[in-house]
Structure formats: C-alpha cells, structure tokens
Design goal:
This protein is an alpha+beta fold and about 180 residues long. It folds into two domains: about 100 residues, Double Stranded RNA Binding Domain; about 60 residues, Nucleic acid-binding proteins (OB fold (Dihydrolipoamide Acetyltransferase, E2P)). The chain contains two helices and ten strands; from the N terminus they run E-H-E-E-E-H-E-E-E-E-E-E.
Length: about 180
C-alpha cells in the first residue's frame, strides 16, 4: 500500500487485537492487487435492540488507480466475523477490478443478423449472408433454434461469427422474430 492503513474504532474501546486483525487482513489485499493507494477501515459498535446485544459494523474504503472500492456496513455480533466478512467482500471487489484492469474479463460477442442463402440438408451445412454481403458457413451443430432441418432459405437468423479452420463461420445460429428497438 502506498499510503498507510487508517483504522478508526467508533463507540468502542481501543483494541490492539482488533487492529492487528485488520492489519493482517489489509496486508493480504496486496496479494490481489499490488497498486492499492490507500485503505480506510471504520469499525463501529452499535446498540440495536435490548434483546440482541451489540452489533459491530465494518466499513472499508479502498483507493486504487482510477477507482474507489467500498464495502459498506457489514454487521455481525462477533467483531472478528464482521471484519472477516468485510475483507472477504472487498477482496472479491478488488479481484474483479484487477481482472478488468488486466483485460481478463470475458467479453460477450455481439450477435450478428443475417439471412440463410444456401442449405444442404443431406450434408448438414449451409451458408448465411451477412449485412456486408459475406457468406458464413454454418453446420447442423451450430444451430440452436429451431432445429437444422426446419431452417429455410431466406430465414433471418442471429449468429455469432468466429474464425474456423477454413475461414469465418457462424456459431450459435438461431432463427426467430426480429424485435425492433423501442
């Protein structure tokens, strides 16, 4: 961490054990992402109901380049469980942020829209014409809905384009009614 950890305990006496646990948990965050700029942790003790006793609430504010990650009000009767749960939550957010920064997040391919131009039922394949007039190969196994045998020449289909062994091809081919944007 570039800036020292800031720990605030509210409505409770100072506790070396609690601060040590927070420091240990904060240090583990560096293993998820080594460019953490600052970490602020606030632990509060609140009286909820007479019959339930005190609840401990933990708030974590983490600064990283280009973002501020926050876990707000993780509560539990056991202060160490509240700390653990809050750091687990901020750890998941930090891992997600790090994946996005590295570009590891899966991107979903936008489906294309085309028209079936050729079908060879006995051989189990066909071709789709794309809006830019290219032909994409597809086979029986690429068709999601309806079944391959029910496709007709001229049917409008959605597809995802990918690079096959012999050039571009369509996968996840599905025919259906086109919904106009609202």
């Amino acid at each position: 961490m570039q800036i020292p950890l800031q720990i605030t305990l509210r409505d409770m006496p100072p506790s070396e054990a609690v601060e040590t646990r927070i420091r240990e948990k904060a240090q583990k965050l560096d293993s998820f992402y080594d460019r953490i700029m600052s970490c602020r942790v606030v632990v509060e003790s609140t009286q909820r109901h007479q019959h339930q006793g005190k609840l401990h609430s933990v708030h974590i504010d983490l600064s990283v380049p280009g973002a501020e990650l926050v876990v707000n009000r993780v509560e539990h009767e056991d202060i160490y469980v509240a700390i653990r749960d809050a750091f687990n939550a901020i750890g998941r957010k930090l891992e997600d942020y790090a994946r996005r920064q590295r570009g590891d997040v899966k991107s979903h391919d936008a489906p294309g829209r085309g028209r079936v131009t050729k079908i060879f039922p006995a051989q189990g394949y066909g071709f789709i014409e794309t809006p830019d007039r290219r032909e994409l190969y597809f086979n029986r196994n690429s068709v999601v809905e309806p079944e391959f045998e029910q496709l007709e020449i001229g049917a409008e289909v959605n597809y995802v384009e990918e690079q096959g062994k012999e050039g571009p091809q369509a996968r996840r081919v599905s025919a259906g009614k086109h919904q106009a944007p609202e």
